[in-house]
Design goal:
mainly beta, 12-stranded mixed β-sheet, 7-stranded antiparallel β-sheet, 4 helices, 7% helix, globular
Length: 441
């Protein structure tokens, strides 16, 4: 999507992407009588109805068309969703409120438009892909690099510097083209999802981990092992002696029978292909025997062990996914004062395709990471998200977040409640059927 016409559309629509451009409803406290009433009932909106589009980085979706109403989700720039054919009476909107599919209300104005040919919708036409390991194409900066916006002082296609990204910063890229900077030098630019630009020459493709856990079924059951060290081997056991066999790869999955033997005070696990692995060389995920009280019926919940660096997703007492997770690098320290993951039982209160509200300088202890994918926000405020910037799953690494591989993050995002409606970028839980996350020692 490179060329003058596409760039013109992007520049013409950039102003609508600035974070300050939100609906007037965000600027008023909850003082309306209507905001205290129950959400209005509207007729179901067919999927093929006319659409409205997001022309801001975040376009809020509200429970009711009133000042101070609860925000239940949001659209991201370029996103489109089916709407009612006629506006709905409401307060606190500079233009008009429209009900959208499957629920909620959006204020038309600075953050949303009924014009599906709006320049911002054309510029941000590349929308996230929800059925792949990562929702966008990701890149890393090769050096400290300028961040540009379109100059507001000229009608020409000129960009001016408004900030910098650190060397090694990670970001999503949704388009590219050429334009002149303030010095008149032509630059090939990459478009970030927030509407800002970076030099394409300062970017290289990100190399996310290919690791993924195992979806459990009748053929793939617990226990299972994962290799979290380099330079380890299978073993053969013969006459009470252990002899090294062929090498194991880093992050390799090892299917176990559940049987083990001890030789010279070392435990060896039997594999389904008639080999053995040394206990200290692999992370073993076994079946739970004692379940929390909430693990009933089809209740979705996630069990995270900080000590072992493992994550198992359950439906009731049935395990459905087993994988590795990176926890806070200070492991069992105090989360308020160290880089540790908080222990306890929490609920998933929000889901974000990419976490628009996360500070890019705190999502990783050493790097600047934008557009963090597949983010589940816990009731504690902590995140469980995918990390495209490292491959240390099963090893403590984060600033306190729970980090899984891109493939596992995509799976968990699609599986966990609340469900993300089509076209939405983020959704808030209604509290009816929240996914629970237990983080334990």
């Amino acid at each position: 999507m490179e060329g003058r016409h596409w760039f013109s559309a992007c520049c013409a629509g950039w102003l609508a992407l600035c974070p300050a451009c939100t609906s007037s409803n965000d600027r008023h406290p909850d003082l309306s009588k209507a905001s205290a009433a129950a959400p209005p009932k509207v007729d179901p909106i067919p999927k093929d109805n006319p659409k409205l589009g997001s022309i801001a980085d975040v376009t809020p979706i509200y429970e009711k068309p009133a000042p101070g109403a609860t925000r239940i989700g949001y659209l991201h720039a370029g996103g489109q969703v089916a709407r009612a054919k006629e506006p709905y009476p409401g307060e606190g909107c500079d233009a008009e409120w429209y009900p959208i599919r499957p629920k909620g209300f959006v204020c038309i104005g600075a953050a949303a438009s009924l014009d599906t040919k709006h320049p911002t919708l054309a510029a941000m036409a590349l929308q996230p892909t929800l059925n792949q390991a990562l929702p966008y194409t990701y890149a890393r900066t090769t050096q400290e690099t300028p961040v540009y916006e379109q100059s507001k002082q000229t009608k020409d296609h000129v960009v001016k510097q408004v900030g910098k990204l650190r060397r090694g910063a990670g970001l999503a890229v949704v388009g590219s083209w050429r334009a002149k900077d303030e010095n008149g030098e032509e630059q090939r630019l990459g478009l970030m999802p927030n509407g800002l630009f970076v030099r394409a020459s300062d970017l290289k493709a990100a190399t996310p981990s290919n690791f993924q856990g195992v979806v459990l079924d009748k053929e793939n059951e617990l226990p299972v092992g994962f290799v979290v060290k380099r330079g380890v081997n299978y073993f053969k056991l013969d006459a009470g002696r252990a002899q090294k066999d062929r090498p194991l790869e880093y992050h390799q999955r090892v299917d176990l029978t559940g049987r083990f033997r001890t030789i010279d005070d070392l435990r060896y696990w039997a594999t389904k292909d008639d080999r053995w692995v040394r206990h200290r060389d692999v992370t073993v995920i076994r079946r739970l025997h004692d379940f929390p009280d909430f693990a009933k019926g089809q209740k979705k919940w996630i069990d995270v062990s900080i000590v072992t660096g493992t994550l198992v997703a359950y439906e009731g007492t049935k395990p459905v996914l087993a994988t590795l997770v990176s926890v806070g690098r200070d492991r069992l320290g105090e989360p308020k004062t160290t880089a540790s993951s908080e222990r306890g039982t929490f609920e998933v209160v929000e889901k974000h395709v990419t976490d628009r509200g996360l500070d890019p300088k705190v999502s990783s202890p050493y790097e600047e990471i934008h557009d963090v994918p597949w983010s589940l926000v816990l009731s504690s405020g902590a995140r469980l998200h995918a990390a495209f910037w490292h491959d240390r799953f099963g090893i403590e690494h984060s600033s306190g977040a729970l980090e899984v591989s891109p493939a596992d993050g995509a799976w968990l995002f699609g599986w966990a409640t609340p469900a993300l409606p089509e076209g939405w970028h983020g959704v808030k839980s209604s509290g009816d059927d929240e996914t629970t996350i237990r983080v334990r020692k």
